[in-house]
Amino acid sequence: MKFLLSRLGVIFSALLIGACSSALPDLPMATVHPSLTKNISDYSYLIGPGDTLNVFVWGNSEVSGSYKVRPDGMITTSLVEDIHASGKTPTQLAREIESKLANYVRQPIVSVIVDGFVGPFSEQVRVIGEAAQPKAISYTKNMTLLDAMIQVGGLTEYANGNHASLIRVVNGKQVQYGLKIDDLLEDGNIKANVDLLPGDIIIIPESWF
């Protein structure tokens, strides 16, 4: 009897949770964030949260240092607080730091070196689903689908690579394209290799067979 009551309690709880879940409102779709790269043929790496920046001020080692970009995209240096670093090239950031340091240092010359590339989310290539190692990849100039597959270790044995999709933001809207990853990796069909762009999302489904 106790076992029966226990089972009934579990079933009732599950039904109650299901009823409550169905009554919950749906969240709006994720906000679309297009890539910050305007001209892919003139691609430059953009700093992102999580990057470590080595800021070197010539002749002023006391104000030089290593700084990690915070989740809000800002860094704080020895003399300058809250400089927005995310979305800028190292050169752009160096010139901005020079401008701010000019209030304290005479004619500062600054170099910014990135260590541990992460980049903004809008510039990463994300591979999810039945990849051997699903992850976000820092975009590299001239990256292709094959390059991304090498970085994620290929597909799992359950993957349906020829029904994979690529999601890309085009003119402010998400557009879905079909991929033939099985043809590329298993058959060596180089025509299935395509160029990737910053911000692309690759979704690899599971095979039903």
TrEMBL record:
Compartment(s) where it occurs, according to its Swiss-Prot or TrEMBL record: Cell outer membrane
Domain SLBB: start-end pairs: 124-204
Leader peptide range in chain numbering: 1-25
Highest taxon, organism lineage: Bacteria
Main location: membrane
Record-linked InterPro entries: PEP-CTERM_polysacc_export, Poly_export, Poly_export_N, SLBB_dom
A Pfam family matched in the record: Poly_export
Membrane-protein topology: Multi-pass membrane protein
This protein's UniProt keywords: Cell outer membrane, Ion transport, Lipoprotein, Membrane, Palmitate, Polysaccharide transport, Porin, Signal, Sugar transport, Transmembrane, Transmembrane beta strand, Transport
All residue ranges annotated as the Polysaccharide export protein N-terminal domain in the record: 42-114
Alphabetical list of NCBIfam families matching this protein: pepcterm_export
Family: Belongs to the BexD/CtrA/VexA family.
Protein name (Swiss-Prot/TrEMBL): Polysaccharide export protein
